[in-house]
């Protein structure tokens, strides 16, 4: 019998992925201070993928403590450029600088997902996608950002691959769901294996 599933995320993109896959779930915003978690492990030598896992687990733990006995999905995504982890831009000027820094280069999106019940991690996975931006002229970046507006501030790369952001790229090597922020195929497989969804 399917069990209650809670998604520890306020991301509309992650919710849409699960809903489109026919998963019954409740989305709950975690009250996790991501920067505080990062500060606590600064200098520990974690890879960007490991950091995404730590953040995903922190979010899942926060929600798991509020929903005892429930299967909680925690997820997080980091963007890494030459092993440097970048965060969501704070304003449009930072978004402009972000796109300039990614222009003509390959960066990684590291999407982590964990399953947790009562504070115990049951399963974890990290999907990695490599995205190569085409060389972008500063004037084009300005026009692009003026078209997409503040949506650019809702993602670490200052782009939405599922929208006009696709025009920024030369090549993409990776799973679409991982790029959007949730390694969906491994997650669905694990949910089926556990009998949490019909399989």
Structure notes:
The protein is globular and about 55 Å long. A hairpin with a 2-residue loop joins strand 5 and strand 6 (120-133). The longest helix is centred in the first third of the chain and has 19 residues, at 48-66. Strands 1, 2, 3, 4, 5, 6 and 7 form a seven-stranded mixed beta sheet that branches. The protein has a single domain (5-193), classed as Maf protein. The termini are close together. The protein is α/β, with parallel strands linked by helices. The chain contains seven helices and seven strands.
Structural descriptors:
alpha/beta; Maf protein; seven-stranded mixed beta sheet; globular
In short:
This protein is an alpha/beta fold and about 200 residues long. The protein has helices spanning about 10-20, 35-40, 50-65, 90-100, 140-150, 175-180, 185-195; strands at about 5-10, 25, 70-80, 85, 105-115, 120-135, 170-175. The longest helix has 19 residues, at about 50-65.
Second-tier CATH architecture? Alpha-Beta Complex
Q: Number of helical runs? A: 7
Oligomer: single chain
Averaged pLDDT, please? Answer: 94
How much of the sequence lies in strands comes to 25-35%
Largest sheet: 7 strands, mixed
Please report the distance between the alpha carbons of the first and last residues. 11 Å
Helices and strands, in N-to-C order?
EHEHHEEHEEHEHH
CATH topology: Maf protein
Structural class from helices and strands? alpha/beta
Assigned CATH class: Alpha Beta
Topology summary:
Layout lengths: L4 E4 L3 H9 L5 E2 L6 H7 L7 H19 L4 E11 L2 E3 L5 H11 L3 E12 L2 E14 L4 H11 L20 E5 L2 H5 L3 H10 L6
Parallel strand pairs: 1-2, 1-3
Antiparallel strand pairs: 3-4, 3-5, 5-6, 6-7
């Amino acid at each position: 019998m399917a069990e209650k599933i809670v998604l520890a995320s306020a991301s509309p993109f992650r919710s849409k992925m699960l809903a489109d896959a026919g998963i019954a779930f409740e989305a709950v915003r975690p009250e996790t201070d991501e920067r505080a978690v990062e500060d606590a492990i600064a200098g520990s030598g974690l890879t960007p993928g490991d950091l995404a896992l730590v953040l995903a687990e922190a979010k899942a733990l926060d929600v798991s403590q509020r929903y005892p006995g429930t299967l909680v999905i925690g997820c997080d995504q980091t963007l890494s450029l030459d092993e440097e982890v970048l965060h969501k831009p704070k304003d449009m000027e930072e978004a402009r600088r972000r796109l300039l820094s990614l222009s003509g280069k390959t960066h990684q999106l590291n999407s982590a997902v964990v399953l947790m019940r009562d504070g115990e991690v049951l399963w974890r996975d990290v999907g990695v996608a490599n995205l190569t931006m085409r060389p972008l002229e500063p004037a084009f970046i300005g026009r692009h950002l003026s078209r997409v507006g503040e949506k650019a501030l809702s993602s670490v790369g200052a782009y939405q691959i599922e929208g006009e952001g696709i025009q920024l790229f030369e090549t993409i090597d990776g799973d679409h769901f991982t790029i959007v922020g949730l390694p969906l195929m491994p997650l669905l497989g694990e949910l089926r294996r556990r009998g949490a969804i019909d399989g």
